[in-house]
Design goal:
By secondary structure, the protein is of the alpha/beta class. It is about 45% helix and about 10% strand. It binds guanosine-5'-triphosphate. Guanosine-5'-triphosphate binds next to helix 9. GO terms for molecular function: GTP binding.
């Protein structure tokens, strides 16, 4: 019978092989010892024999040795600390010298005439922005007022329109209904009809993925056809608007190019509109409000050049919800996100907000923001929901590009006080309006609109009064007044109201709105935004800790 194989190989060796290995090991050890001897390293560290027990002063000797050891240890620690301090000082010295270097460089840069902040904080002051806007209005032949299709009436500025109508040189005013992709088709059509009673109005959807020239050229070289994509296939209404302007320019028979000023409130898409017409990212566009600080000239066609202007500044006298949507972010307004969110929530239907943000039922804005903060993971230290951050995100959704909301045009439209029938006919003269209608119809046909289920209805809007010419002192005073007004208003208003019970009446363009505020102050519920007090009962935990007996329990 065949024997089964052993699993492990035997370690048995022939004697000759074993001796050979032993010899090799010995030789190797000898070699190592020799080398160590050469280097002066003695192999064995003499073992401390200790104090013999028979020694008469054994205890004293041991104590002395212990003290010596401690002293050495202290000395070592001291040296270590000194070294650490020295290193920290050195680092500090280095950082201060580099700081002063960068400061000097910065100061030098700021002193240079080409630097944009050369005149310090004055450069982008409110007055400067107003002056820039006025320059654009006076330099342009045609003023294009860009309106956010989600709230066109709220994006109209009566002061600007009046200034254009009163200005010399037969200036024309056009209305561009931008961001039409964020609302429903029927709403766009209604608004176009409403706006066209006063001025020529164009439906538009800007391209939001345009790249600058260098990126485009790189892509062009890399991938065939990439330019077509980046050139903004998702811009609609651009050919209609450009043709409309070119036709007007040709009709003027002027040697100079037609100058078109693009104006509007923050984030309505002024820069994006120019970029869409130009086909590249010529102007700085982004979600941040007030990105455009200076006027920028862009040639969009041979006979048409456009001016991208800084945003119109909303007057502080506007109601809180208007300021929440249309005012530029300023450091003094940074902390008002909660108030702004509250003002906006008052104009919306609670159910729609719950659906849009997928949050449970809430009683007031603070509760909503708490839900939102929890949902988005905006949690502060100690597990407190960061409602301020939630409010900022909520606001940026409304001014940005994602949230779909809409307002409805007034039921009984009438011309604003500054606009007469003659002015309307004058404004429509010289334009090929039938071509415009055709272009608008084509744009509406090709844009992918939002459906009614995914949108929020803004119950009430009104034109936003803007600042066209101000002195700095006046603005500061107005700002202070506005802050006081807002504080008073918030103190007297209930926190959250259903859209079914609108707070403000629908107003007609240009007319002063009659806000129906809650009459009785007694009904008002004052909400103070404070972190929720969380009481952690430590006493029981402490009691448990105290009850734990280490000697008996830990075994
Ligand atoms: N969905 C969508 N988003 C748009 C449209 N037009 C512009 N946007 C977005 O809106 C945001 C604001 O656009 P901008 O062109 O910077 O607006 P602006 O009016 O120049 O802004 P300011 O710099 O404040 O003057 C950007 O994030 C754009 O991508 C549009 O038609 N549809």
């Amino acid at each position: 019978m065949k024997r089964p194989k052993l699993k492990k190989a035997s370690k048995r060796l022939s004697c000759s092989k074993r001796y050979k290995i032993q010899k090799k090991v010995r030789e190797h050890n000898r070699k190592l010892r020799k080398e160590a001897k050469k280097k002066g390293i003695t192999k064995r560290v003499k073992k401390d024999p200790g104090v013999p027990s028979t020694a008469p002063f054994k205890e004293e000797v041991l104590r002395e040795a212990e003290q010596r050891k401690l002293k050495l240890e202290e000395l070592k620690q001291k040296k270590k600390l000194e070294k650490q301090q020295e290193r920290a000082q050195k680092r500090k010295r280095e950082s201060t010298s580099s700081d002063s270097n960068t400061k000097a460089k910065k100061a030098k840069k700021e002193r240079s005439p080409n630097h944009p902040k050369s005149t310090g904080s004055e450069k982008y002051s409110r007055k400067f922005l107003c002056d820039e806007l006025n320059k654009v209005i006076s330099a342009s032949d045609v003023i294009v007022e860009v309106l956010d299709a989600r709230d066109p009436l709220g994006c109209r500025c009566p002061e600007l329109e009046e200034a254009v109508l009163k200005s010399e040189g037969n200036k024309k005013l056009l209305l561009v209904l931008n961001k039409i992709d964020l609302v429903q088709k029927s709403i766009v059509e209604k608004w176009l009809r409403y706006l066209q009673r006063e001025f020529p109005a164009i439906a538009f959807k800007s391209s939001v993925y345009l790249q600058d020239k260098t990126v485009q050229e790189k892509k062009k070289r890399a991938v065939e056809g990439a330019v077509e994509q980046s050139k903004g296939v998702d811009a609609f209404g651009s050919s209609c608007l450009l043709q409309f302007l070119q036709d007007y320019a040709e009709a003027q028979e002027s040697e100079n190019a037609l100058k078109v000023g693009i104006v509007g409130f923050p984030n309505v898409g002024k820069s994006s509109l120019i970029n869409s017409l130009k086909g590249i990212r010529a102007c700085h566009a982004g979600v941040q409000q007030g990105l455009t600080k200076c006027t920028q000239e862009v040639h969009v066609a041979k006979n048409v050049k456009m001016f991208d202007s800084p945003s119109i500044m909303a007057a502080p006298s506007n109601p809180a919800f208007t300021l929440a949507l249309r005012s530029l972010p300023t450091p003094e307004k940074g902390g008002n996100a909660l108030d702004a969110a509250r003002a906006l929530l008052k104009l919306c239907d609670k159910q729609q907000i719950m659906l849009q943000y997928t949050v449970p039922d809430f009683r007031n804005s603070l509760e909503f923001l708490t839900h939102l903060a929890k949902k988005r993971g905006f949690i502060q230290k100690g597990g407190i929901p960061n409602t301020e951050q939630a409010a900022e995100v909520f606001l940026s959704n409304w001014t940005g590009t994602k949230l779909s909301y809409h307002s409805k045009p007034p039921d009984n439209p009438s011309l604003p006080s500054y606009l007469s029938d003659e002015a309307v006919t004058e404004m429509k003269k010289g334009w090929d309006l039938s071509k415009l209608q055709q272009g608008n119809a084509e744009t509406i046909k090709s844009v992918k609109f939002r459906n009614s289920s995914s949108t929020v209805v803004l119950s009430s809007t009104r034109p936003t009064s803007g600042l066209l010419s101000v002195s700095e002192g006046l603005v500061t005073k107005e700002l202070m007044d506005e802050e006081e007004c807002q504080e008073e208003a918030f103190d007297n208003e209930p926190d959250f109201v259903h859209a079914e019970q609108p707070q403000q009446e629908q107003t007609q363009n240009g007319k002063e709105p009659q806000e129906t505020r809650p009459s009785s102050a007694g009904n008002s519920t004052k909400v103070t935004f404070q972190p929720m007090p969380i009481t952690i009962d430590l006493s029981s935990a402490q009691r448990e800790d105290d009850a734990y007996d280490f000697n008996t329990d830990f075994k």
